[in-house]
Design goal:
Blueprint (H helix, E strand, L loop, with lengths): L6 E6 L2 H12 L6 E7 L14 E7 L5 H7 L2 H33 L25 H17 L5 E6 L5 E6 L12 H15 L8 E5 L2 H23 L3 E5 L2 H10 L6 E6 L6 E6 L2
Parallel strand pairs: 5-6
Antiparallel strand pairs: 1-3, 2-3, 4-5, 7-9, 8-9
């Protein structure tokens, strides 16, 4: 869909064909547009003479796109605030630890101890935060408020998965408003929710949002696509460049073809245009 286009006019032999053509040009589904029939169209004499094309106008409904949602919530400002708070918390914790160690040294007599092997910790690694009922309640309230602001009434179920990942299942969004085109809105909601929940936390809480089982359906679709493109690479003997995808979806493709004996995969480009490339094994 072209940037900033909110409505188009489409013509075809029938109203249904004109609508379908317009939806294809906008790259949206019928639930995301308002339709105005400008001209019904007619076959004319003997189906040829004086026939008129059907003409319709499709206008995108007034829902926020993923980017508009991020802009309205000042993501950059929030991200900087989280990083600042996290850095400050780590510095305070480090200073407190040094102070406690100093107190121990002053209070205890000097001892000759056996040498120990020091474990080096990579400070760049994410420290997983142990979730509790308060965090789950905070997440539930945040998602409830967010979905109500978007005008979507859903049932929210939160479960704790491996590595303390909070999986949020939202049921009731029958029109796919929370999902958006190719899951873009769902990804945006997941991103801003993760920022909000991790604010002022020393560790990192992983949040995974899902709606109407979209993630599982999308994963199945991507696995089929990966296998189809791998077969294409084998048949043509040429590498296959896939469309840009987010890191989560690229990982699914890599994983799907990891055991393939004929092809290998790697990613190229910079975000948000980074994409997967399938090549034949040498």
């Amino acid at each position: 869909m072209a940037k900033n286009i909110t409505s188009i006019e489409s013509s075809a032999k029938t109203v249904e064909e004109a609508i379908a053509l317009g939806l294809e040009k906008l790259g949206v589904c019928i639930a995301e547009v308002d339709i105005e029939v400008l001209e019904e169209g007619s076959k004319g004499l003997f189906g040829f003479f004086g026939s008129k094309m059907a003409n319709v106008k499709l206008t995108l409904k007034a829902t926020q796109t993923a980017q508009e949602m991020l802009d309205s919530l000042n993501i950059d400002k929030t991200r900087n605030a989280i990083h600042s708070d996290t850095k400050h918390s780590k510095e305070v914790a480090k200073n407190n630890k040094l102070a406690d160690e100093q107190k121990v040294k002053e209070a205890e007599p000097i001892k000759v101890e056996e040498p120990v092997v020091e474990t080096v910790i990579n400070e760049d690694e994410e420290e997983t935060f142990v979730v509790d009922d308060e965090i789950i309640k905070e997440l539930y309230n945040y998602i409830s408020q967010l979905t109500k602001m978007m005008g979507v009434d859903v049932d929210i179920n939160i479960t704790v998965r491996d590595n303390n990942t909070l999986y949020v299942d939202m049921q009731g969004d029958t029109l796919g408003i929370l999902i958006g085109r190719r899951g873009e809105t769902l990804d945006a909601l997941q991103y801003i929710t993760s920022l909000a929940i991790n604010k002022n936390k020393e560790g990192f809480i992983r949040v995974l949002l899902d709606s109407e089982n979209y993630r599982a359906k999308r994963e199945e679709s991507l696995v089929r696509l990966a296998n189809r493109m791998a077969n294409k690479a084998v048949k043509t003997g040429r590498r296959v460049v896939m469309e840009p995808m987010n890191p989560y979806e690229r990982r699914i493709l890599h994983s799907a073809l990891q055991g393939n004996e004929h092809v290998t995969t790697h990613s190229e480009g910079e975000e948000p245009r980074r994409h997967l490339v399938i090549t034949l094994k040498k």
